[in-house]
Each structure stands twice: as C-alpha cells, then as structure tokens.
Design the sequence.
C-alpha cells in the first residue's frame, strides 16, 4: 500500500494501541493532541536502513466534547381573524356582476374565502346564474412564548445529534452533562460529553 502514518483525528487520553503494521508512537495513558503521530509508517534499522510502509492499526482513547446550541424561546404563529366584510356577486357564465360598490384590492396580510352557490327556482329548475359570496380574512402573526423546559429538551436532542455526527463510527458515549442559560429571547443549551472512540486516521506520507 501507499506509505502512510496514523495520526490523531482529535485530542484524547490513549487507552489502547493496536499497531497491526508500523511502529506505535504512543502508549496507553498518554494524552495526545489533534494531528499527533500515533502509529508511524517509517521504520529505521541499522541493517535495512529507512523503510516506508502503509501503517495499519487502531488507537482507542477517551475523548471530550463541549457543544452548544441556541434555541429560540419565542415562536411566530399565524392566526386568522374574520373582518366581517362580505361581498356578493352574480356570475352569468364568464361574466361577473358585482353587487357592491368598492373594488376588491386587499392589503398584503389579507386573503379571500369564496363560496359559490347555484340559483334554483321552485321545482328544482336551476338558472344559469351562480351566486358568489366573497369574505375578507385578515391574517396576523402572533408571537408565542415557549417554556424553558421545552426549549431545553429541543436543545438537548439537537446536541446529541451533533455529538453522534462528530464522533467516529463505532464510538460510544460514556457520560453526558447538560446545562442551560437564558440569553435574551434564546436559551443557550450546552453539552459536555465524555466518549470512547477510535481516534486514529491515516495520512499519506510525502513521497519526496
């Protein structure tokens, strides 16, 4: 394979070193920082001189995460209020006769509710006329206050998802601690977690 080292993808406290190919550069109990050499792909001996190899292995370590997220304590909800403005029109085929004087231009926050009804004579005979009832509805946005408990529960769920995305595959969470602090209209939710994961990643050696 291509000559490569195994280095730390993040800081941690080394618990186990499994060097299948290459020379271990760290021992259990050592603290390492991101990018530090863990298993070397360079072997140097008096007999054969320097030899490059594709290092293989795993380094398991205890890692720590400090993650935060801002959760809004207010939410905007749309409400609808009937204005009581009703207009009636008559439709003859494609032609509409308005039975009110003013036009129907509405503000941006207004909408219309249209109801159509047939005109029938006694005996069930239907005339080719449709009655259109047009009702104006004004919508408005109401700001609703959320409870701190709801905001914190949402923040904790988001933080656990973020933690799973940050961790290496196969890792596990050994402990979590949450805290929350109000920041204006937001709740700052913080997670401090301790994990057990494989922190080694391969980095190709320069060929020069």
Sequence:
């Amino acid at each position: 394979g291509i000559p490569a080292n195994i280095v730390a993808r993040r800081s941690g406290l080394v618990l186990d070193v499994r060097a299948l190919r290459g020379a271990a550069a760290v021992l259990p109990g050592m603290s390492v920082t991101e990018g530090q050499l863990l298993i070397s792909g360079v072997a140097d001996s008096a007999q054969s001189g320097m030899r490059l190899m594709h290092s293989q292995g795993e380094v398991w370590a205890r890692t720590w995460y400090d993650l935060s997220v801002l959760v809004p304590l207010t939410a905007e909800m749309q409400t609808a209020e009937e204005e009581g403005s009703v207009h009636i029109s008559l439709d003859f085929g494609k032609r509409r006769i308005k039975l009110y004087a003013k036009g129907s231009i509405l503000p941006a926050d207004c909408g219309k509710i249209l109801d159509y009804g047939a005109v029938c004579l006694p005996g069930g005979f239907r005339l080719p006329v449709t009655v259109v009832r047009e009702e104006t509805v004004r919508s408005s946005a109401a700001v609703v206050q959320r409870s701190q408990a709801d905001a914190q529960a949402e923040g904790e769920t988001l933080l656990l998802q973020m933690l799973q995305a940050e961790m290496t595959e196969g890792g596990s969470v050994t402990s979590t601690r949450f805290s929350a602090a109000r920041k204006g209209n937001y709740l700052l939710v913080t997670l401090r977690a301790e994990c057990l994961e494989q922190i080694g990643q391969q980095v190709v050696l320069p060929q020069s």
In short: The mean pLDDT is 82.
